[in-house]
Amino acid sequence: MTSGKTPVSDWLLEVNNLACGYNGETVVHDVNFALGHGDIGCLLGPSGCGKSTILRALAGFLPLKSGEIRLQSRDISLPGRTLAPEKRKIGMVFQDYALFPHLTVAGNVGFGLKHSSREERQQKVMELLDLVHLKDLAHNYPHELSGGQQQRVALARALAPEPTLILLDEPFSNLDADLRRRLSLDVREILKSLGISALLVTHDQQEAFAMCDQVAVLRAGRIQQWDEPYNLYHEPANRFVAGFIGQGGFIPGTAMGPDAIDSELGVIRGNRAYKWPSGTLVDVLIRPDDIVYDADSPLQPRVVEKTFAGTSTLYRFKLSDETEFEALFRSHLDFHLGETVPVRVEADHLIAFERSE
Ligand code: ADP
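Above: the input record for the complex with adenosine-5'-diphosphate. Below: its predicted structure, written as tokens.
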């Protein structure tokens, strides 16, 4: 399916104007992104937004309605032309591990290496098990392993045929929060040490941020922003991304110029210049870490909600005009429900959108 006409690209994976879906219905629209060699990308969004659908199209299980998917400058999916999954050199890791229960750990990892000699296969399997720290469990069966260990086996099995790209579909969802965090960092390290590119699908932004170089935020089948995690947080492209990424909420304000907004929390200034004229009505994003305790501040909201989280406490405050916002304080700053607390805004970024949007 290689097209001789298409130019060689520096990207490993290119997805251009992709649309696909089921039974005549399009659920993913005009998706565009590109992944560099050795990069880890992510499709992040709420349940049902189309993440797995894009992954299925990349794996070759779903035909395209329009657009193209190119891997190493080669068309692998076009409308009416879908290169078979087994010919794509793409590995997959699923949420439920999908290990073969009747095969040992070594048997699972070596499953895709049928064309190698016995010695080559054994050597490769042991190398991979070493990489995922499971050498000692080579002769165990999947049911004898923890969830985290099973997922390491699944990763080693996907890596065995030396794929060009690995797709990971909610791989840590069945694991508890602590293990999820550790395993996502381990998997990143393993992929980076091998220089293998990967695309992760998740609804968990912490996982996306910890593991990925580039993240696409999706909503209703469309990419809202494809960017580095830092930029998604500090420079969200629209109101949906601003609300979906990180914590926080919007309060009303009035533009005083390109980089200052007047609000019930006082004048909020930032390092970003907007084009709107003074007087424009806007909504300003207030993140919980934008609010600091200041004993001398005249701004004194009431505590209406309090969530203790060990090292920190998340407070929900209300002003006399009913404006509400959240603040995250170290937990030794302990206030009671109903108490008034002097605070001020200390935002290092200014994120706001016109009210009519
Ligand atoms: P996500 O992975 O973000 O949770 P999906 O890609 O699974 O979302 O689903 C996107 C949309 O496509 C949803 O509306 C879902 O109901 C629909 N969908 C998913 N799989 C199928 C299928 N096999 N047949 C018909 N509709 C489907």
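Notes for the reader.
The longest helix spans residues 177-194.
The pocket of adenosine-5'-diphosphate is lined by residues 22, 27, 45, 47-53 (CB under 6 Å).
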